[in-house]
Structure formats: structure tokens, C-alpha cells
């Protein structure tokens, strides 16, 4: 009783995905996401939500430093793009995409700086360099001078 009207898991996931579909559908959001992608060394144009979700599934496998940075960048990027969208829709206050990118980069940098025991590989050093991780922070690796 009561279970007959219960939505299927597939319909819930489809509904959830559709609520995020506007995120990568406008040029403003694509510009922000492409900037984030370049900082995690993924050089391709931003795609629609479904394609980005499929790419995220493949990049987020494992606990490598790059996978963790990708997961964090996806969460941070979606959060700030959604905040921008809400401020524009409800407050009429558009923000410069470069300002949003700077906020995302700063939040990413501050979060990554708290991580410890990052393997000292060239790829990890490059990612730290792209996110402006300082060599003076304890426990973090020294970025290479690229």
C-alpha cells in the first residue's frame, strides 16, 4: 500500500540530472567549466551535462591525486556556477566569469593545501602549480617552475 506511486530509481536519477542540465548549456558556464578543465589538464571543450557526467564517472575512479582534484573541481565548479545562476535569477546581479573562476581557484587551492602525503610525481606537481599551491605550505609538494 502506498508503493504503487513510488517513483523508480531511473526516474529519480533522470529528474536529478535534468535539474543540473542548464549548468553547461550556456556560454557563461561553459567558459567557467573549460577554465577548470584546463587547470586539471583536460584540454577539451565543455559538453552538456550528460557528457560531463559520463566523463566525471571515468575520471573520478580511484583515489589518485588527479582523481581527487577532479572530484573537488567538479563539486566546487557546480556549486559556484549554481550560486552565480541563483544570484542572477533572484537578485539580478550578474558576475564576471573571471571573478567566479578566481573564487573557484581560491577555494580549490585552500582545500588542496590541507591534503597531506601527496605523492611527489611530475603530474601531481604540475596540478599543484596550476592551482597555485605554494611550496611554503607544510606537507605539500614543491611545484615545478613550468
What does this structure look like?
The chain is built from six helices and no strands. The longest helix has 27 residues, at 65-91. With 146 residues, the chain is mostly helical.
Features:
single chain, 146 residues, mainly alpha, 6 helices
Given helix and strand content, the structural type is mainly alpha
What number is the mean pLDDT? Answer: 76
**Number of distinct helices:** 6
- Overall geometric form: globular
What string, H for helix and E for strand, traces the elements in order?
HHHHHH
Quick overview:
The chain is an all-alpha fold and 146 residues long. The protein is built from six helices and no strands.
What is the strand and helix layout of this fold?
Blueprint: H1 9-20, H2 27-39, H3 49-59, H4 65-91, H5 97-112, H6 122-130
Amino acid at each position: 500500500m502506498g508503493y504503487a506511486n513510488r517513483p523508480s530509481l531511473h526516474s529519480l536519477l533522470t529528474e536529478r540530472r535534468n535539474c543540473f542540465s542548464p549548468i553547461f548549456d550556456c556560454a557563461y558556464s561553459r567558459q567557467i567549466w573549460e577554465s577548470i578543465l584546463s587547470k586539471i589538464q583536460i584540454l577539451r571543450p565543455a559538453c552538456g551535462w550528460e557528457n560531463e557526467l559520463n566523463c566525471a564517472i571515468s575520471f573520478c575512479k580511484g583515489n589518485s591525486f588527479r582523481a581527487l582534484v577532479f572530484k573537488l573541481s567538479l563539486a566546487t565548479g557546480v556549486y559556484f556556477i549554481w550560486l552565480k545562476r541563483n544570484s542572477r535569477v533572484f537578485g539580478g546581479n550578474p558576475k564576471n566569469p573571471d571573478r567566479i573562476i578566481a573564487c573557484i581557484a581560491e577555494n580549490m587551492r585552500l582545500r588542496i593545501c590541507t591534503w597531506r602525503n601527496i605523492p611527489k610525481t611530475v603530474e601531481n606537481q604540475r596540478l599543484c602549480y596550476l592551482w597555485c599551491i605554494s611550496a611554503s605550505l607544510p606537507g605539500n609538494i614543491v611545484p615545478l617552475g613550468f
